[in-house]
Automatic annotation (TrEMBL):
Top-rank taxon: Bacteria
GO molecular function: 4 iron, 4 sulfur cluster binding; L(+)-tartrate dehydratase activity; metal ion binding
Organism: Enterocloster bolteae 90A9
Fe-S hydro-lyase tartrate dehydratase alpha-type catalytic domain boundaries: 14-282
EC number: 4.2.1.32
Protein name per the record: L(+)-tartrate dehydratase subunit alpha
Family note: Belongs to the class-I fumarase family.
Subunit record text: Tetramer of two alpha and two beta subunits.
Catalytic activity: (2R,3R)-tartrate = oxaloacetate + H2O
Enzyme superclass (EC): lyase
Lineage, broadest ranks: Bacteria, Bacillati, Bacillota, Clostridia, Lachnospirales
Entries under InterPro entries matching the protein: Class-I_Fumarase/Tartrate_DH, Fe-S_hydro-lyase_TtdA-typ_cat
A Pfam family reported for this protein in Swiss-Prot or TrEMBL: Fumerase
Length: 300
C-alpha cells in the first residue's frame, strides 16, 4: 500500500511519461485514418506527402523524439470521480508532469507569459497547462485526455454568436469561412471540432472537447450527425489536401458537440486539430492501475 505522497509521485511519473509518449506516437485512430486517406488520393503529390508523414512517424519512434517540433501548449480534460483518492492533487500533479515531460521528452518551451513576453522554459505558466474539469458523482476513477495545442492548429480557432434567423445554414457558413480562411495554417488533413450552444464560451469549450472524440464517431443526434457529414464533404470539396498541397481529402473528420441553447441565439465555435493530432486518453482506477485507451498495448 502506497502512502499518499508515494501515490501522487507515481501518478505524476506515469502522466509525465504518457505526455512525452503521446508527443512522439500518434493515437491509433489518427494513424489508421491517415492510412485510409492516403489510399483515397489519386495524384502523386498528396500521396508523397502522406508517405512523408508516415516516414516522420517511423523516425520519431526510432529516434525517440517528438513527431512535430511544435509540441504545443498542454491541455487536459479531466473527468474525475468524487471518490477518486487523489482528486485533490490531480491539477497540481498534471502541472508537475508537464514540467517533467518538457525536460525528459523533450518538449519545446511554448508557455509565454502574456504581456510580459517571458518564456517560462517549463511549459507551465499562468493558467498553463489548461485543465478542463468534469466531476463525476459516485465514481472512483480518473479519466484524463491530454492534448498538445500547437500554434498552427490553434490559429483557425474562432467563436461567435449568430442571430437565430441565420439558422444552421449560418453555422455551416461560419465553419466553411474559417476553413477557407485559415485551414491551410493548421497543417491538413484536419480534425474539425464544432461547438453549438448559447454563448461564445460554451460553444468554444464544446468545440475543444469535440477534438477528443474518436475519429469515425458520430454525434448521437441524427440531425447533428448529418451536418457533420455535410461539413466533412464540403471541406473536402475545398481541396486543401495534405499540408495544403491540394488533394481530394482535407479532413480526418468533423465532430459537432452541442448543448441546448437560448432560442434567441446560436453560439458557434471552431477548434482544429492538425494531421499530427497528438491527443491522449488514459484512465486511472482507485488503485492507480492505468489503462491507455488512445494507444493500445502501450505500457509506460
Amino acid at each position: 500500500m502506497m502512502t499518499k505522497t508515494e501515490a501522487v509521485e507515481y501518478m505524476t511519473d506515469i502522466m509525465a511519461k504518457f505526455v512525452g509518449y503521446s508527443g512522439k506516437v500518434l493515437p491509433d485512430d489518427v494513424t489508421e485514418k491517415l492510412k485510409e486517406l492516403r489510399v483515397l488520393e489519386t495524384d502523386e503529390l498528396p500521396k508523397t506527402i502522406y508517405d512523408t508523414m508516415f516516414r516522420n512517424q517511423e523516425l520519431a519512434a526510432q529516434l525517440d523524439r517528438p513527431c512535430c517540433q511544435d509540441t504545443g501548449v498542454l491541455q487536459y480534460l479531466v473527468k474525475c470521480g468524487t471518490r477518486f483518492p487523489l482528486i485533490d492533487f490531480v491539477e497540481s500533479l498534471l502541472k508537475e508532469a508537464t514540467v517533467r515531460a518538457t525536460f525528459d521528452a523533450p518538449l519545446r518551451h511554448n508557455s509565454v507569459e502574456t504581456f510580459d513576453e517571458y518564456n517560462t522554459g517549463k511549459n507551465v505558466g499562468k493558467g498553463t497547462p489548461t485543465v478542463f474539469w468534469e466531476i463525476v458523482p459516485e465514481c472512483d476513477t480518473c479519466e484524463i485526455y491530454s492534448y498538445m495545442a500547437g500554434g498552427g492548429c490553434s490559429l483557425p480557432g474562432k467563436a461567435m454568436v449568430l442571430m437565430p434567423g441565420q439558422g444552421y445554414e449560418g453555422v455551416t457558413k461560419f465553419v466553411l469561412d474559417v476553413m477557407t480562411s485559415y485551414g491551410l495554417n493548421a497543417c491538413p488533413p484536419l480534425v474539425v471540432g464544432v461547438g453549438v450552444a448559447t454563448s461564445v464560451e460554451t460553444a468554444a469549450l464544446l468545440s475543444k472537447k469535440a477534438l477528443f472524440r474518436t475519429l469515425g464517431s458520430k454525434n448521437s443526434n441524427e440531425r447533428a450527425a448529418k451536418l457533420e457529414k455535410l461539413l466533412e464533404d464540403g471541406i473536402n470539396e475545398i481541396g486543401l489536401g495534405p499540408q495544403g498541397v491540394s488533394g481530394k481529402m482535407s479532413v480526418m473528420g468533423v465532430h459537432i458537440e452541442n448543448t441546448a441553447r437560448h432560442p434567441s441565439t446560436i453560439g458557434v465555435a471552431v477548434n482544429v486539430g492538425c494531421w499530427s493530432h497528438r491527443k491522449g486518453h488514459i484512465i486511472f482506477d482507485k488503485d492507480l492501475k492505468y489503462t491507455i485507451i488512445s494507444h493500445k498495448g502501450v505500457t509506460l
